[in-house]
Give the backbone structure.
Amino acid sequence: MNKIFLYIFLITSVTSFSQELNCNVIVNAGQTGDENLQIFKTLENQISEFINNSNWTNNSITNKQRINCSMIINISNFDNDVFKGTIQVQSSRPVFNSSYESPLYNYIDKNFSFKYQEFQNFVFNPTQFESNLISVLSYHIYMLLGMDSDSFELNSGKKFYEQARRILDYSNGTNYLGWNAKDGRQTRYYLIDNILSPTYKEFSYVLYDYHFNGLDRMYDDIKKSKSNISKSIISFERMNNRRPNSYILKVFFDAKSDEIQDIFSAGPSVEITNLISMLSKVAPMHSNKWREIKY
């Protein structure tokens, strides 16, 4: 009922949408050979409490309105207080009038290292670097908040993306990887650079049309909703023509490829010849899934 009320509120209000988080945190230290050390469980508990108990927005919400997400941290090695590994961040958003949760953000951050001492304080400062652990966690939180917001209300995620950019700006003077353009093309730097650039202006429109005018209307008219989803994805072609192989497209399709395959492999059928052609062009890394679509 809360989700239905929230949906109705979004239709009748111009106020930006945001939620707090219901995040499942897993710290996996199997690669270190010392996975049973208490410090890893303490780290897991502290991260979980930090994410789920912090106030990331100005909204008052109920527990049922929280964004479902997860963070899986794989520690590959550690030396005293220096930890290295990867973090995968995923989030989903509810689809109106259904029990289905649509995947929205799926990011594997390979440039992840940080210093941590057991039971240290976790403090997020929106304008100042505290630690790389806090910066990376907070950056991804604001990215997923932005995408979630954009999926309900057009261009409402910008304030969250801008906070992610501020985190990047005060973190890129450190020696940690992922915050600087020189660190590679598939990094935190290029993700926020893409999403805030006018070159990729279609991205926020796709998030909105795909979810709000597509998935959220499946209960009423499946065929029309599938057509709306197809049209929204096809609009990526203009963006790709402007700047081929953008990182933001990879992040989108890493989250949505399985769902897109499922949507267009089930009835009722709609015309998707142009969609399949475009998908093969802008997301060739998932071409095996596009070939499996039955239409």
Remarks:
- The two ends are 35 Å apart (CA to CA).
